[in-house]
Design goal:
It is found in: Cytoplasm. This is Holliday junction branch migration complex subunit RuvA. GO terms for molecular function: ATP binding; four-way junction DNA binding; four-way junction helicase activity. Its main location: cytoplasm. There is one protein chain. The protein is an alpha+beta fold. The chain has three domains: 59 residues, Nucleic acid-binding proteins (OB fold (Dihydrolipoamide Acetyltransferase, E2P), Beta Barrel), CATH 2.40.50.140; 63 residues, DNA polymerase, domain 1 (Orthogonal Bundle); 65 residues. It contains ten helices and seven strands. Strands 1-2-3-5-4 form a five-stranded mixed barrel. α3 packs across α4 and α8 crosses α10. It starts with a strand and ends with a helix.
């Protein structure tokens, strides 16, 4: 197993990053939250999980070990493959999945693209005894290499295309993504006012909550 990769970020796309590790470009499929913390040309470390199939080997990347372990745990449930497991991490996060399973919150699980009500019930049933209760106030890091927030020194709208692209990558339409971006403008403004930076990962989660309510 490749537990993590560390190196210079050579390139990023809507759903992946190429990290230069000792002169070898490692293609890593990443969650939107993880990608939001990566910057081309900068050093980063990404926790990884290698999924081997008959015709492919795919390396999935996450902001930290907790997200990676959640991705692997989710796949132990019947009917959950890497794509859905990655969507679970992107939408709910590690703590969110633990809360949903521990409280049998089927509705929370159905917010993940690709999971219907029956699938959510099955996940709760099969993972119930495998997840630990979340300690109040405890949450996983969302930044890879400590680079999650977008610095306030740049354009205050820099977060918009990142969040929009991440939502489209998760399966929402461009129009739905744009509506969700507009809905979290006030959240971004509050972040800039208090911290001088926008936390793209948190804004993405806020946008996803908006879409789920819609």
């Amino acid at each position: 197993m490749i537990a993590h990769v560390r190196g210079t970020v050579a390139a990023t796309t809507l759903d992946s990053a190429v990290i230069d590790v000792g002169g070898v470009g490692m293609l890593v499929r990443c969650t939107p939250g993880t990608l939001a913390g990566l910057r081309d040309g900068r050093e980063a470390q990404v926790s990884t999980s290698l999924v081997v199939r008959e015709d492919s080997m795919t390396l999935y990347g996450f902001a930290d070990d907790d997200e990676r372990d959640t991705f692997e745990l989710a796949q132990t449930a019947s009917g959950v493959g890497p794509k859905v497991a990655q969507a679970i991490v992107a939408v709910l996060g590690a703590d969110g999945l633990r809360r949903a399973v521990a409280s049998e919150d089927v509705t929370a699980l159905t917010k993940v693209p690709g999971i219907g009500r029956k699938g959510a019930q099955r996940i709760v049933l099969e993972l119930k005894d495998r997840v630990a209760a979340v300690v109040p106030g405890e949450s996983a890091s969302v930044a890879a290499g400590g680079a999650g927030p977008v610095a306030g020194g740049g354009d205050a709208a820099d977060w918009r295309p990142q969040v929009h692209a991440a939502l489209v990558g998760l399966g929402w339409s461009a129009r739905e993504a744009e509506s969700a971006v507009v809905a979290v403008v006030d959240v971004a403004a509050a972040q800039y006012e208090s911290d001088g930076a926008a936390d793209v990962s948190e804004l993405l989660r806020a946008a996803l909550r908006t879409l789920s309510r819609a």
